[in-house]
Amino acid sequence: MKIISFKDKCFKPELERLFTRQACPANIEKPVRQIVDDVRKNGDKAVLKYLLKFDSAKLSPSQFCVSDSEIRRASAEIDSSTKKAIDVAISNVATFAKARIPENWTFSPRPGVSLGEKYSPLNRIGAYIPGGTAPLISTSVHTVAIAKTAGVREIVAATPPNKEGKIHPALLYALSKSGATEIYRLGGVYAIAALAYGTRTIRKVDKIVGPGNAYVTAAKKIVYGDVAIDMIAGPSEIMVIADKSSRPDFIAADMLSQAEHGSGLEQAVLVTDSASLIEKVKRQLVAQSATLKRSGPVSKVLANGAFFILVRNIADSVDIANRYAPEHLEILCGKAESIAEEINSAGAIFIGEWTPEPVGDFVAGPSHVLPTAGTAKYFSGLTVEQFFRRSSILKYDKKSFLKELPYIAKFAEVEGLDAHGRSATIRKD
Fold first, then answer.
1. CA 356, chain centre distance (Å)
2. Pairing with 176, which of 68, 115, 156, 236 sits 20 to 30 Å away (CA)?
3. Element (H, E) at 395
4. What pLDDT is attached to residue 131?
């Protein structure tokens, strides 16, 4: 755990270390590309090889896709309270997504000219659901349920199986209830490649969404262009802005909520104007982490990824937050809403002590698939709009076309594109 102070001479380099974190380190791209190329060239044969190598599961291509009977059995295994939690999350996420569905529109900026936009749902998308260190049941809701609300007809989910080739029953229930039309027991880089390029067994998708570790992120980066993706996102992170009035046990619990994700590369950052609060939070982190089941990954984050930034006043925290651009930003200090208005770079902003980060992870409504590693400066979290294609709509009548024809012809002349010019002037002749 590292304390960084504005009065500390090492302030700048230490802070730059935070600002320049990477979603996917460059040194992993070469081996990831080799796996992607192998799956692209050899299809199911390569998938079988990596399924055994990385997930210790020996399956045939006919077993890649989860059967309807397996989904029914999984549903029967789940207790009613788990189903209720999943159903509530699906309802909340779908309600939020429905409110944001883009609408077709047109207007007439000039007589005889009609312009606008048309939105059409994507035909086939792939949702990657991590499952290596924990079955991220909520991610199925925060991807698949949004795609279904958008009207995507084919929603393909991929998630790693255990060594018996099984998927957690609650995850199967959530995927099916959220709207997945195909569920594949495939994980990691080879799953991304199979979704992007297709195999004899798996048809390619138009877009891949969902979080993953650094290897999954690198794979998405590599296949981008052959398929659309949502964003480049790496290990999870949280920044908390707090003052002396904030509860140190709340802050520590919220920081640990992201530290337990499993890679050990996560970051948890507290920004405060209170040195005494830092000491209290540090004590709470040690005490609370000792009680957690996933203490191994958490200890790595506390050793290397926990930072405390001591500012002169809370106003200084705004600049730091916007430069850091956190995936999750909690504002627990006084005048939290005023501070939130000044934040322009964050995946999600949680306002007040009764809005801890897990409400966003599970049930609130907005997707928890968010930009990390500072990419919130230019990426946004997954939304329903990302499951649509936008087409421009243009319509001229003869009179309006002939009025603007001289300008069209002049552009064609200046750019040396005579076929463009003829396409327009032939209509005058």
1. 19
2. 236
3. strand 388-396
4. 82
On whether residue 383 sits in a domain, the answer given is no
Q: From CA 180, how far away is CA 162, in angstroms rounded?
A: 20
Q: What ranges in 185-274 are assigned the alpha helix state H?
A: 188-197, 214-223, 248-259
DSSP alpha helices (H): ranges in 56-120? 68-77, 80-98
| CB contact at 8 A, 180 and 415 | no
User: Does 13 map to a domain?
Assistant: no
Give CA angle at 231 (148, 224), nearest 5°.
95
Strand partners, 157: 127, 183
pLDDT in tens, 326-355: 999 999 998 999 999 999 999 999 999 999
Active-site positions read 327-328
Q: Is 22 helix (H, G, I), strand (E, B) or coil?
A: coil
Structure tokens at 103: 């609408």
Which stretches of the chain score pLDDT less than 70? 6-12, 14, 132-134, 262-264
| Cα distances (Å, whole numbers) of residue 291 to 144, 254, 300, 305 | 33, 15, 15, 19
The CATH number of the domain holding residue 279 is 3.40.50.1980
b/e burial code for range 102-118 (CB count within 10 A of at least 16 → b): eeeeeeeeeeebeeeee
**0.90 surpassed by pTM:** yes
Cα gap 330→379, rounded to integer Å? 19
pLDDT for the residue 264? 66
Q: 214-223 and 29-42 are packed helices; what angle lies between their axes, rounded to 10 degrees?
A: 60
DSSP reduced 3-state for 113: strand
Asked whether residue 143 falls in the same domain as residue 177, the answer is yes
Euclidean distance between the first and the last CA atom of the chain, given in angstroms as a whole number: 76
Q: Outline where DSSP puts E strands in 191-335.
A: 207-209, 228-229, 237-242, 267-272, 306-310, 328-331
- What pLDDT score does 132 carry? 63
